[in-house]
Amino acid sequence: MLYLIGGAARTGKTTLSLKILERNKIACISTDVLRNTLSNVYPELLSKELYSDKDAIAEKLFPYFLCFFKNVHDKYPNYVVEGETFFPSQIAGIEKDRLAIKCVFLGFSKTDLETLKKTTEYNDWISKMSAEQQAGVPQHLIDLSEQFKKECKEFGYKFIDVSDNWETSLEDAYEYLMSNK
């Protein structure tokens, strides 16, 4: 089974994937690693301007991710891939390729800068922004989450809002992914 954990930044995708690794011994990787590797090898693939446009990044990188997903699916019985650079509409296309996939998308209906700054355990990109840029991050992530939520509804995928109780929401996502439903 290929487990996909998608959604907006700072929602707990990495934390959830590491929880699965710890409890179930299922290997995981972040699409950040794949994106950065591709960007380092092929600098022309992603321009600096593109980095702020998640739709454009997802569109540009998805063919590479799809190839990766297929290779992982063929080689390993179980694997977790997490990241913000794939959308439910893209995953719907993968299932047509008959890959065994289970996915969940995480998002915010509300958040604030202070809450987001507390979730910088793995990558503190927020502190590298100007104050003006930081001020726009919460609404950007809420808007992006709304896009994930809308696509999840359209394509029948599970969306979990982590705004109110982050730890409980991640546990719900874990239970969903590991269940036989």
Helix fraction, binned, reads: 40-55%
Briefly note the structural class of the backbone.
alpha/beta
The oligomeric state of the chains shown is single chain
Report the portion of residues in β strands: 5-15%
What's the CATH superfamily, by name?
Answer: P-loop containing nucleotide triphosphate hydrolases
Brief descriptors of the model:
single chain; 181 residues; Rossmann fold; alpha/beta; 53% helix
Short summary:
Helices cover 53% and strands 14% of the residues.
Show the helix and strand layout.
Blueprint: E1 2-7, H1 13-24, E2 28-30, H2 31-41, H3 54-75, E3 79-83, H4 88-95, E4 101-107, H5 113-117, H6 131-155, E5 158-161, H7 166-178
Parallel strand pairs: 1-3, 1-4, 2-3, 4-5
Helix pairs in contact: 1-7
